[in-house]
Amino acid sequence: MITKEMILAAIDLTKPIIEKLGGKIWIVITDPNKQFGDFDFNDSILIEHEVGISTEERKQNATGKAKFSWENGLPSKMASIYPELLTSGDCVWGGSWSIELKRGEYFVVAVSGFTEAKDEFISKSIISTVNMFMSERVTTIKDSDGSAIIK
Fold this sequence. Notes:
Layout: H1 4-21, E1 25-30, H2 41-44, E2 45-51, H3 56-72, E3 96-102, E4 105-112, H4 116-145
Antiparallel strand pairs: 1-2, 1-4, 3-4
Helix pairs in contact: 1-4
């Protein structure tokens, strides 16, 4: 299970890269337990995080990127390819990434503050770091009782 603490630790590990790139971004991360169709988007937001001093525009763009990915399970850069998927409040710029945890359940990270490529890189970095924490948790469980079942 992905926890808020894991996500914040992942952001913390990514901060040196963020700071090296310029350091003024807004991050929006959705709760993978609150999926499209079952919850309102605003209720699905688990973390909104500012690195450096960001702007309201960056916050709105990160939120719009997260919303598009949360609704569709696609990176926000796909909005320009599939405009028919756009709904009110979506952002068409790249910078979000999502992974499917279980069929139809997505973990979404969206960033705004750099170029689309850099925003997407930071989103992927945060997701990859959370994935590392999850893998270490499974390894710890395997080591302690010989199984690969998360309890």
